[in-house]
Amino acid sequence: MYPASFHYHAPTTLEAALALLAELKDRARPLAGGHSLLPMMKLRLAQPEHVIDLRKLPDLAGIRATDAGLAIGAATTHWQVESSPLVAATLPLLAEVAGVIADPQVRNRGTIGGSLAHADPAADYPASLLALEAELVCASIKGRRVVKAGDWFQGLMTTALEPDELLVEIRVSRPPAGTGAAYVKFPHPATRFAIVGVAALVTRDGQGRCTRARLGITGVGPTAARLPGVEAALAGTALDRAAIEAAARRAAEGLDLQDDRQATATEKAALAGVFARRALAAAVARSGG
Amino acid sequence: MTERPANLPVTITINGAVETHDVEPRLLLVHFIRETAGLTGTHVGCDTSQCGACTVLLDGLAVKSCTVLAAQADGADIVTIEGLAKAGVLHPIQQGFREKHGLQCGFCTPGMIMAACQLLQRHPHPTREQIRHQLDGNICRCTGYHQIVDAIAWAADVLAKG
Questions:
Q1: Which candidate in A50, A55, A103 is best for mutational testing of the B interface (most B CBs within 10 A)?
Q2: Fewer CB within 10 A of the end CB, N or C, for chain A?
Q3: For residue range A216-236, what is the model confidence (pLDDT) as tens digits?
Q4: What is the pTM of this model?
Q5: pLDDT tens sequence across A55-87
């Protein structure tokens, strides 16, 4: 399968890339690892007139420590996150998520920024970045702005990114002391996309009580989403089995569940509950409790 | 599209040989390898980045060449299945597939072997579980995978003995 014809650009500076985007807007698509865009172009679901390859932009890939946690360049590959000692030491949840995306070959090419900008409803990163309350840095010739992960996903494959903007960096804060985190997914057997995936972070105080819970889910709705019902139900509990099970029963609250080829809305509600419970149990086990 | 996009000069080193050609921007790396450079050992299976038959090493990393533009590989160093045997002597992974009957029809085999190259770089002493996990991106319809795992475990032992 061949993509439709396009004009190819490989700017060597961020300024040049942003100038192209400002000029071409939605006639152009930025290309990072290409593992979301190229399959869509081969199926002719996407037929951009111009492709702006980001591979020559300096500093768009890489992971650095910040006072709050980590700053991850948008063109950082899943393998780079999966194998980074800095991520393992600071935010092991992200390495866990990166390591279960698709397969090793895809992880060598696919990027965190590409995944977030594409916003596939079954992608893995969105659930964890919602739960981590990440910040996404967008650049255009007008300057930079920071979008909270909670404001990023606006609909099916639709994000807050403007046509003249490039996602350049993802900032993630280190969770508070006493936090355990886990990502558990049910992968589609062929594609390895998440039929359902839940990221959970739970924080306990000195008495073992839950002071904070953050959960994100992917796969079951048009976008990844937080699980506010589960988060509220866990507050102040001892995070024992009964508390986890009671909270997980609220997983489907507020989710936009529709029947599709993979599962009915009823099945998705059940899967959301089961995977919320499993992710919470794993997170609690890592919280020192 | 109002005007035909200009062709691009692309230079890619494949198994040590430098290939410079003017190509369409939409040309996929796998077609550059198979049709432009004439190396047909790299196969196109699913063409949707799932089956792994088109796996090659791009600057040392296993990638699915059906999902990379030739333009993205400009300046890169590629190793394909044809680049593994040296002076008629099979690479230990190739030899392992032969010893352990790691193939039946053979269509997936080049991709399996290239994926195994990276697997053994990252995990020189892999468990059978690790071998299976690292072959997530390669599909075989004949063998049931058991003998592929045997073949890679055999190669790991050979390589470990130097």
A1: A103
A2: N
A3: 999 999 999 999 999 999 999
A4: 0.96
A5: 999 899 999 999 999 999 999 999 999 999 999
Residues of A in contact with B6 (CB under 8 A): 7
Give the span between the Cα atoms of B37 and A209, in whole angstroms: 64
Residue ranges, comma separated, of all CATH 3.10.20.30 domains in chain B are: 8-83
Domain count, chain A: 3
| B8-83 fold | Ubiquitin-like (UB roll) (3.10.20)
B68 and A8 in contact by Cβ < 8 A? no
Torsion of CA A279, A280, A283, A289, to 10 degrees: -150
Cα distances from A246 to residues A128, A180, A234, A276, B94, in angstroms, run: 22, 19, 9, 11, 54
Q: Using an 8 Å CB-CB cutoff, list chain A residues near B49.
A: 35, 38-39, 105-106
In chain B, CATH 1.10.150.120 covers 92-160
Predicted ipTM? 0.96
- Residue A183 in contact with partner chain B when CB distance is under 8 A: no
- Residue A248: which CATH number? 3.30.390.50
Q: Which residues sit opposite B43 in a β-bridge?
A: none
Say which amino acid occupies A281. A
For A78, the token pair is 């899943």
Tell whether A45 lies on the interface with B, counting CB pairs under 8 A: no
Fold for B92-160, please state it: DNA polymerase; domain 1 (1.10.150)
- Tell me the backbone φ, ψ of residue A13, rounded to 5 degrees: -130, 155
Inter-residue contact A33 to A102 (CB < 8 Å): no
Domain boundary among A173, A194, A216: A173
Of all residues in chain A, the one with the smallest CA distance to B59 is A108
Query: In 3D, which of A99, A120, A34, A108 has the Cα closest to residue A77?
Result: A108
pLDDT in tens, A16-32: 999 999 999 999 999 99
